[in-house]
């Protein structure tokens, strides 16, 4: 029986490579200004983006090093060496003290920008947790508690960010407001959100926000979030409304996407097509409960198998998990676990589900799994060990299941983030 794991990994690697800062950033960087380049970066790709910006300005353009300053705030374990731009490793998905201080330093640097300076903002997925700047009256511990409640709620990332924006001094356009004396604010972003909404990437620190405090309050009610009274008061305070279209903060602000989930999915499709598979592409913007999406995809796979078609089913987007148990895992592992339960009687279907940033759920460590792989070996191991996928699903404990079968995908930090890649190969 052919081992499809190398092909699955090649498909995933192609998706990641298409969005790496080393590949996508330099073509979008602006000429050097009269004054300084002040680089402010956040997210899982922040340090890699900062290093690429340094190569452009210091090596290609020969900018005097004293004219390049900045700070890049990234997830723990995602730092890379830099020369002029300071790298801070901070908490994700739950913010920590390092992110709190880095956000304050970022706002201070933005406020120091003058009419001769370029404010270069580099964003990637994870920036919402990395830049943590609670509004007045909300403590850091209270903001952390809100993040934990959101992560367990099953809310899609866009809705989570609506609440985050209205409790922050940096999100929802406020970074642009802090830096509005700069000659120009240029934001270059790697999209990790469905439909590439600029106001959702890292919670839109430099773009107008179409959502309101009323929207945030409605989401708190919809998901029955447990929040402190101080947070409720903040969401009732009109001073915490985010920046809207027409705000002077955006007069000299530009926003550009430099990598999109669709481009990465296209790269993955090319590898599968070159390997001789018929393609079912389900799009780069899928959302929904991980196990429910897995059930729909399993039906597609079994149909292709019954028709004798050699098929690759590919999708992107960002799934969610409504946490009811106390296990470990993330949406990609939960998706793969649900697939394993539904496909366990087959021998000719293999699948991979992973986050392109190299971390699917987990504890915020660089060694967290990116996702999981399943195939006939998984099914044989399940049987020999007497593992019941349904019991692990009930406890949201996909990591423990795949640790037992040896099927966790461990990539380490990839230094980019364009959401998930899911591949099912039907032979």
Automatic annotation (TrEMBL):
Domain MOFRL-associated: 8-235
Keyword Plastid: no
Ranges where the MOFRL domain occurs: 312-420
Coiled-coil blocks: none
Any one cellular-component term (Gene Ontology): cytoplasm
InterPro entries on file: GK-like_C_sf (IPR037035), GK_N_sf (IPR038614), MOFRL (IPR007835), MOFRL_assoc_dom (IPR025286), MOFRL_protein (IPR039760)
Keyword field: Kinase, Transferase
GO molecular function annotations of the record: glycerate kinase activity
First and last residue of the signal peptide: none
Protein name, as recorded: Glycerate 2-kinase
Native organism taxonomy: Bacteria, Pseudomonadati, Pseudomonadota, Alphaproteobacteria, Hyphomicrobiales
């Amino acid at each position: 029986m052919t081992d499809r794991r190398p092909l699955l990994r090649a498909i995933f690697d192609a998706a990641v490579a298409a969005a790496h800062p080393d590949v996508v950033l330099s073509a979008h960087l602006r000429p050097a200004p009269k004054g300084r380049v002040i680089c402010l970066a956040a997210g899982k790709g922040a340090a890699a983006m900062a290093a690429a910006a340094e190569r452009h300005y210091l090596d290609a353009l020969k900018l005097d090093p004293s004219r390049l300053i900045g700070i890049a705030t990234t997830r723990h374990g995602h730092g890379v060496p830099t020369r002029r731009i300071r790298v801070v490793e901070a908490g994700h998905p739950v913010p920590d003290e390092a992110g709190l201080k880095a956000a304050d330093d970022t706002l201070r640097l933005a406020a120091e920008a003058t009419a001769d300076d370029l404010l270069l903002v580099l964003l990637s997925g994870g920036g919402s947790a990395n830049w943590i700047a609670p509004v007045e009256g909300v403590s850091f511990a209270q903001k952390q508690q809100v993040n934990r409640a959101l992560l367990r709620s099953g809310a899609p990332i866009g809705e989570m960010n609506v609440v985050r924006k209205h409790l922050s001094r940096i999100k929802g356009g406020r970074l642009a407001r802090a830096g509005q004396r700069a000659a120009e604010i240029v934001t270059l972003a790697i999209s990790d959100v469905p439909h590439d909404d600029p106001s959702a990437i890292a919670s839109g620190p430099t773009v107008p926000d179409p959502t309101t405090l009323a929207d945030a309050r409605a989401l708190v009610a919809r998901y029955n979030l447990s929040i402190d009274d101080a947070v409720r008061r903040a969401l009732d305070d009109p001073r915490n409304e985010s920046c809207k279209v027409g705000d002077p903060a955006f007069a000299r602000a530009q926003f550009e996407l430099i990598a999109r989930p669709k481009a990465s999915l296209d790269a993955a499709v090319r590898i599968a097509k070159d390997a001789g598979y018929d393609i079912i592409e389900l799009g780069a913007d899928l959302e929904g409960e991980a196990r429910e999406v897995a059930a729909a995809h399993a039906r597609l796979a079994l149909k292709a198998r019954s028709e004798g078609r050699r098929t690759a089913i590919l999708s992107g987007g960002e799934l969610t998990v409504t946490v009811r148990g106390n296990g470990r895992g993330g949406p990609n592992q939960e998706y793969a676990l649900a697939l394993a339960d539904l496909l366990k009687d087959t021998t000719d279907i293999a699948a991979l589900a992973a986050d392109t940033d190299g971390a699917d759920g987990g504890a915020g460590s660089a060694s967290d799994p990116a996702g999981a792989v399943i195939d006939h070996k998984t099914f044989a191991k399940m049987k020999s060990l007497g593992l019941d996928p349904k019991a692990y699903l009930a406890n949201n404990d996909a990591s423990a299941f795949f640790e037992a079968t040896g099927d966790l995908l461990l990539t380490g930090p990839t230094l980019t983030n364009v959401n998930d890649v899911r591949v099912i190969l039907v032979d």
